[in-house]
UniProtKB/TrEMBL annotation:
GO terms for cellular component: cytosol. The record marks Y141, K192 as: Important for catalysis. Its cofactor is Mn(2+); Mg(2+). This is 3-isopropylmalate dehydrogenase. The gene is leuB. Its EC number is 1.1.1.85. Mg(2+) binds at D224, D248, D252. Binds 1 Mg(2+) or Mn(2+) ion per subunit.
Amino acid sequence: MSHKILILPGDGIGPEIVAEATRLLHALKDRFALAVELEEAAIGGAGYDAAGEPLPQATLDLAREADGVLLGAVGGPRYDQLPWEKRPERGLLAIRSQLELFANLRPAILYPQLASASALKPDIVGGLDLMILRELTGGAYFGQPRGIRTREDGVREGFNTLIYSEPEIERIARSGFEIAMKRGRRLCSVDKANVLEVSQLWREVVERVARDYPDVALSHMYVDNAAMQLVRAPKQFDVIVTENMFGDILSDAAAMLTGSIGMLPSASLDAQGKGLYEPIHGSAPDIAGQGMANPLATLLSVAMMLRYSLGEAAQADRVEAAVGRVLDQGQRTPDIWSEGCAKVGTREMGEAVVAALAD
Ligand code: NAD
Ligand code: IPM
Ligand code: MN
């Protein structure tokens, strides 16, 4: 049976990087017998332009039917003045929420060839292999009430609600322990329990779930310290589990350890393992249309889709090996370029990965 994949290019560099993912999927189909059917739909600013909504109903329907969804990125200055409900980012949040994609896996792996592209010294990042598990459908991103209001004294105030229920904490904690069991069996839960009640409950529930996983060493860390430790000694971590906004911020920081934000893929999974796959970076308006964006995070997101949603582990290995080979050969987009390497654009990078696919 053929896997149905929905492609959502989105905005800015989205269409450029997703074109390379499409090229890769076609190559896997033609040369390595991957059974896939691709379909494309609009989301974000592109959804707003096409249908007046950042998440058109037709896109959501196709996403529900697909075996895997691949997204580029959404957002851009052209859409920043739209009312909140119409903003491109709202489309992304809505698809995550509608599909109940609560578990967001963001692996930060340093390819040894990129040690000199990292902002940190090679001995600090060499061999880095960290998994950040970000809760994706709760917290301040979705909590009610929210808004901007005018007080009786005429002063305006903006407000959001950082809220997590016990079942929401329990299911992401359980995912964290399950992932840790398959890796180094160390789980660090990151919170702000010294200040926030929501974090106190988070810690209590994580402790309770831990009793089912006696083989996993659980630790807790405050988010401010975690940000510092990620830059000081990132290899102390195996799996980090944290709430939505902390995970958003920490994963951008972790990306830089691997050389560039253009290197970090992600999987957003529901309870059944269905998922949406996307690079963690945004639509990069500053370089959009110039053909210089790094497509590797997107190609590595395809590998995650093959592994997690399509049961095609061998094809995933093939893609990851091809990326390694291209880095060995020395091709680099500008964000990961260093002395002695060949500077290439988005398309050349995508073509190089396709050319490096092997049995
Ligand atoms: P960004 O991630 O788009 O860009 C931050 C910096 O990283 C920029 O200098 C950009 O050029 C660079 N960069 C990002 N991806 C790159 C790549 N693949 N190759 C090379 N360089 C890359 O973040 P931002 O500038 O804060 O946000 C821009 C827009 O993207 C906003 O509208 C924001 O809301 C949106 N955004 C979307 C997503 C998403 O779709 N998942 C994620 C983050 C931001
Ligand atoms: C991400 C992005 C999104 C987030 C925005 C664009 C809604 O930053 O995927 O990391 O904050 O989750
Ligand atoms: Mn982000």
